[in-house]
Amino acid sequence: MKTIVKLLFTTFFVLMLAHFMPGVHVDSFYTALIVAVVLALLNIFIKPILVLFTLPVTIFTLGLFLLVINAIIVMLCDHLIDGFTIIDFVHALIFSLVLSICQSIVSAFYSDK
Fold first, then answer.
1. Which of 31, 88, 92, 104 meets the CB 3.0–4.6 Å disulfide criterion with 27?
2. Which chain regions cross the lipid bilayer (predicted)?
3. How many Å apart are CA 6 and CA 8, to the nearest integer?
4. Is residue 110's pLDDT more than 70?
């Protein structure tokens, strides 16, 4: 149940960011739901591999390179899904940063304590 709620919140955030950011476009709610699922799967399977390969750069930049990895994950999602478009890397970086902040806020309020 907790995973479904997080996916629905992520879907909502993707729709809102696409509405307010001029460089991001999502066709429909269904597309945003697919984006949320694909982002979750990419974060589970691909992100740890990228973090492992870029560990020296991440340590050298004191963890700031993880923002670049998040943007790469979002751009990979853009290439995998037809109805989801991000025009360039800067918009992907901003999108991933704002999405991460929104997800963190929801996780703080929706924790099982």
1. 31
2. 7-23, 29-46, 53-77, 89-110
3. 5
4. yes
The yes-or-no verdict on residue 82 having pLDDT over 90 is yes
Q: Where would I find the beta strands (DSSP E) of 23-72?
A: 24-26
In angstroms, rounded to a whole number, what is the distance separating the alpha carbons of residues 66 and 100?
Answer: 12
Length of the chain: 113
Biggest CA–CA distance in the chain, Å, is 40
Instruction: Please give the single-letter amino acid code of residue 14.
Output: V
84 contacts 36 by C-beta, under 8 angstroms = no
Question: Are residues 86 and 95 in contact, defined by beta-carbon separation less than 8 angstroms?
Answer: yes
What's the pTM?
0.92
Lookup result for tokens 């492992």: 52
